[in-house]
Amino acid sequence: MSFTSAHAVSSDGHVLAERRGAIGLITLNRAGALNALSLAMVRDLTQVLLDWRSDTAVAGVVVRGAGREGKPPAFCAGGDIRFFHQAALAGDPRLEDFFTEEYALNHLIHRYPKPFIALMDGICMGGGMGISQGAALRVVTEHSKLAMPETHIGLFPDVGGGWFLARCPGHLGEYLALTGHILGAEDAIAAGLADIRVDAARQDALIDALASLQDPTADGVLAAARHFATPVGAAPLDAHRAEIDACFSRDALATIDAALAGAGGAFALATRQALAKRSPLMMAVTLEQVRRARQMTLAEDLRLERDLVRHCFWLRPGTASETVEGIRALAVDKDHHPRWNPPHIADVTPEMVAPFFASPWPAHVHPLRALD
User: Fold this and answer.
1) Which of 68, 111, 309, 336 is the most buried (most CB within 10 A)?
2) For 362, what's the count of Cα atoms within 13 Å in the CB-facing half-sphere?
């Protein structure tokens, strides 16, 4: 078995890379921030994957999150939203670079020619979903908490979220996109957002088994990882799927809300209460995003999301941005009382939503024009 020690890809040490046998192992090493992605981490991940893509000695790649002693695990909690807030108010051009390069990384993972295995132990949200949903094998554990909670901060489910949520069964994608509902292992597999469940305590054994493979093929790498899968039980959301489909298939945000109000019952009430805390405008943008993405390729969706995120920070600049206000309320001032504009679902009009879907760039200079 050939082992090399993990080394930091750059000076901040937040991405560690090592070769174990024929496997490349990446560890997100920013545990104090729940392994949230910075621009430097996005660049490091991209460089490692490009290097290993052309390295014939690397048969597959595994990505995991560093743990915290005595605390619940986190694969990756998303992007560094405090940086987003500061950069938006300061006009920092690195904010533009972050989203362009993150979405290009997401596309690279979806198109990676070697088995890419994501160990989604613990919190896996937002940007963490972006670097795992394109994996050839998406592994969850009993600790997994998957979500796209962006509407909670006045954003939309990006990192390809429109594309992969739109491909969930029925209208589950709209429900997950609007509410940010957190999925455990069983629900994640049922939703098509994870492939297998592995006991958290066996993750190291899984990595060791892959490292021990002799002359592994792509199929052999994936088969060896699947050997560690354990049976899953019933998915809790399955009991509500008919209600989700009935309500979230409606044509607009207001009619979804009305359907939930008319449905009665504890689930519909809890769902409606969750929606009442989100940005009405960005929920309407999100609904349109997911529905457009059903007819799009991944590259088209990522270009659309790059347009949307540009508008989120600059269509209403500075503190007028729903996203800047949402981050302020959740992560900066932490008062959890965002001042949404407009404040109510009934106040959102199509004329407010339409500008988000006008690209700020001609196609030939779009920042993601090279994606195929």
Assistant:
1) 309
2) 2
What pLDDT does 2 receive?
35
Answer whether residue 372 is part of any domain: no
**Active-site entry in 44, 80, 101, 150:** 150
- 158 is known as an active-site residue: yes
Q: What own/partner pairs with CB < 8 Å and gap ≥ 24 does 231-240 have?
A: 231/197, 232/185, 232/186, 232/189, 232/197, 233/186, 234/186, 235/186, 235/187, 235/189, 235/190, 235/191, 236/184, 236/186, 236/187, 237/172, 237/181, 237/183, 237/187, 237/190, 237/191, 238/190, 240/267
Bond before 360 cis per omega within 30 degrees: no
What pLDDT score does 69 carry? 87
Amino acid at 183: L
Of 24, 65, 79, 130, catalytic: 79
Given 21, 60, 127, 154, which residue is catalytic?
127
> Is 245 a residue of the active site?
no
pLDDT of residue 321: 94
Q: What is the mean pLDDT of each run of 10 residues along the chain (372 residues)?
A: 61 92 97 96 98 96 94 94 93 95 98 98 98 98 98 97 98 98 98 98 97 95 98 96 98 97 96 96 98 98 98 90 95 95 96 97 97 95
Residue 88 lies in a domain: yes
Task: Please pick, among 158, 187, 301, 325, the residue that the annotation labels catalytic.
Answer: 158
Question: Quick check: 365 and 293 in contact, CB under 8 A?
Answer: no
CATH number at residue 254: 3.90.226.10
Is residue 79 part of the annotated active site? The answer reads: yes
Number of structural domains (the chain) is 1
How are strands ordered across the β-sheet holding 123-125?
74-76, 123-125, 145-147
Taking the model in full, what pTM does it have?
0.95
Question: 275: domain range?
Answer: 7-365
For 24, residues 6+ apart whose C-beta sits below 8 A from its C-beta are 17, 18, 48, 52, 55, 58, 60, 61, 62
The answer to whether residue 35 sits within a structural domain is yes
Q: Is 127 a catalytic residue?
A: yes
